[in-house]
Structures are given as C-alpha cells and as structure tokens.
Amino acid sequence: MDDLILFGSSTAQLSRYRQAIRHFMQEELELTLHPHKQTLQACHQGADYLGYRVYPHYLHLRKRNITKLVAWLRFFNNLLSGSSRHPAAHIAARPEWMCLADTGSLLPELALLQRMQGVINSYYGMMKHATHFRLRRDIWRRHGGLLTGYMLPNGPQYTSMRIKKCCMQDWVAGQHLSVHAG
Predict the structure, then answer these.
(1) Contact status, residue 164 vs residue 151, Cβ threshold 8 Å
(2) Buried b vs exposed e over 108-142: b needs ≥16 C-beta within 10 Å?
(3) What residues contact residue 131 under an 8 Å CB cut-off, 6+ apart?
(4) What is the predicted pLDDT for the residue at 92?
(5) Among 6, 50, 95, 136, whose Cα sits 20 to 30 Å from the Cα of 22?
(6) CB of 115 closer than 8 Å to CB of 155
(7) How far does CA 47 lie from the centroid of its chain?
(8) Does residue 2 lie in a domain region?
C-alpha cells in the first residue's frame, strides 16, 4: 500500500499524524514520504485518491480518466472506420493496439470487439462507483459512434457495455459456416 488518506478535526491533529507516520516510516521501514505528494486541506475541497476526486458525500472520477475514456472511444471508432492516424499518447504507447492502426477499415472479429469492450468497461466500472449516471450515458451517446452498432449499455444505468446479441449470433453462424466449408 502506498496511498493513504487521513481525516482529522484540525490541521494541528493532521500535522501530528503526519509526523508520527514520517517517524515510523523512517525508523521502522527506512522509507520516506514523497515531499510533493502530501496536502493538508479542507474536506469540502475534495482529495485526489485512487483515480477519484473524493468529497465528503460524493465521489467523482478524475477528469484525466474521463478524457482517456473518450480518447479510447475515438480510437476504437477510428479503427472501425479505417482512420486511426492520430491516437492519444496513452494509446500510441500501446503496440498491441497500434498494430491495428494501419489495417484500414475493420470488420471486427469477436476477440477484438471483446478487447475493446474490456477497455471500455474498465472505465465504466470505475464510473459506476462515482456520482456519474448522466456522464456515463452522455459519453456513450456522444462518443459511442460506430461502436454502438456492436455494443449497447448493459441496463438503464450505463454501468457497462455488452456486445449485441445479433452480433454474437452472426459470429457464431460465421464460425459454424467456416467449419463446414473447410
């Protein structure tokens, strides 16, 4: 564990906690606290913690995670349309996805669509713990694009996406035909 959030009734109390933690880490573990990753602030300001912005009575996903989800959706739609020339930096650094970028327009295989679904659902899974129903719905409606031909929300709360049954049946029928053709 390397992330920790403490709550206290005063700045003085939190300063004492920090000093006790610093002492324990140095003396018992021979470790130090990161000098720039400690903040003392009022709870109403919220705190960045484990990919979320935590407030006293609600939770929001960090903006950079929302931006990454939109970038992934744009990238996947570009893959499907054949125009994936300029992916976001976090995607361009992943060779397992970039090898598909120059293949032209894709008729995705089930395995590729399942990989896309996994990436999308990892972000939607994080968002379902936050106060984000409208955001989940609006992101899918605005940025789902070509993906909406293959996937749809798994229920009215938009907590995950699933591959459409008609697509699954087409792949199963296509595999069945190819088995008999060979």
Answers:
(1) yes
(2) bebebbebbbebbbebbebbbebebeebbeebbee
(3) 58, 59, 60
(4) 64
(5) 50
(6) no
(7) 19
(8) no
Task: With a cut of 50, list the residues of the chain below it in pLDDT.
Answer: 176-182
- When divided into structural domains, the chain yields a total of 2
Amino acid at 108: P
Give the range of the structural domain holding residue 53, as residue numbers without chain letter. Answer: 11-60
The answer to the question of residue 3 being in a domain is: no
pTM for this one? 0.74
3-state class (DSSP) for residue 104: coil
In a domain, residue 6? The reply is no
| Digit-coded pLDDT (tens) for 106-133 | 567 888 889 999 999 999 999 988 888 8
Verify that 49 and 108 share a domain, yes or no.
no
Question: Rounded to whole angstroms, how far apart are CA atoms 133 and 140?
Answer: 11
Amino acid at 105: S
Q: What is the pLDDT of residue 163?
A: 93
Helix (H, G, I), strand (E, B) or coil at 53: strand
What integer pLDDT is reported at residue 71 of this predicted model? 93
Q: Do 92 and 45 reside in the same domain of the chain? A: no
Cβ-proximal residues to 38 (8 Å cutoff; 6+ apart), any chain: 18
> pLDDT at position 137, please?
95
